[in-house]
Amino acid sequence: MDKFLAVIKKLLTLFVKLFTGVCYLVLLFFFVQVFCYTSFRIPSESMEPVLVNGDYILVNKMIKGARLFDVFAAVEGKDVDIYRIPGFGDFKRNDVLVFNFPYPENRWDSISMDVMRYYVKRCIALPGDTLEIRGGRYKVRGCGERLGNQDERYIEKLEHAEQYGIAVDAFPYDEQQGWTVCEFGPLAIPEKGRKVVMNRTNFFLYRQLIDWEQKKKLSLKDGRILLGDSAITQYRFEKDYYFVAGDNMANSQDSRYWGMLPEEYIVGKVVRIWYSEDKYSGKIRWERILKKVR
């Protein structure tokens, strides 16, 4: 009887140790997912050839810091406050970023976060940059580096865009400015603390951002800019924003069309492809596994 009880005790002790070990592993996995790294699957061709449909990517949250917010309220579609823990650096031009799409589906007139809808695009311009697109090529004033994937085949197609099904009209869809995906800007990307004069042009460029920051409607009436019921002549931004675009420029719904991305909606930077599978054959793409993303 004593031997039987001893065996039972050993088995119970082993079970408790295994259970405790599993709990520690689950907690560690949860900690890493929330604060350090997470994973996403690429479902489209908008970032080809760097990322292709069927790639599984590893996203570093620690550069700018992981986000903390009420997930349950966000899933219900409620407006939530988003906080970041301290990070180790800043996002840079040409970083590939994962973010929550900042606009409601089929509507680009107001900002709201869809916690279940993620996009991956390349950072073209940072807060404080002044961006232009000339001849289909991205240019940031004072920056000599190559920006994005300057696809010459795509740029050639822009001369006959309608024949290739490429949408030419671009943000902010104002007839007086007449911006297109070929000729765009100059657009000053807002940074926290930056002031802008509130005229007609800046009304169309920044109304979604100001609406979102102030939780009030910005309107243009009789030549005056109204925030709620109050006339304003200038505005100081409270948040940082980014301009992002897909490498597959002919097949990417990005900032050229819907505008600027709030920093709060950015999950992190893509660092590697950890797994890849052909969506048609199901075969593993071994040559892509652990490939660094640049």
TrEMBL record:
Segments traversing the membrane: 12-35
InterPro entries reported for this sequence: LexA/Signal_pep-like_sf, Pept_S26A_signal_pept_1, Pept_S26A_signal_pept_1_CS, Peptidase_S26
GO cellular component, one term: membrane
Keyword terms: Hydrolase, Membrane, Protease, Transmembrane, Transmembrane helix
Reactions that this protein is recorded to catalyse: Cleavage of hydrophobic, N-terminal signal or leader sequences from secreted and periplasmic proteins
Single annotated GO MF: serine-type endopeptidase activity
Bilayer topology annotation: Single-pass type II membrane protein
Similarity comment: family membership: Belongs to the peptidase S26 family.
The protein's name in its UniProt record: Signal peptidase I
Protein encoded by which gene: lepB
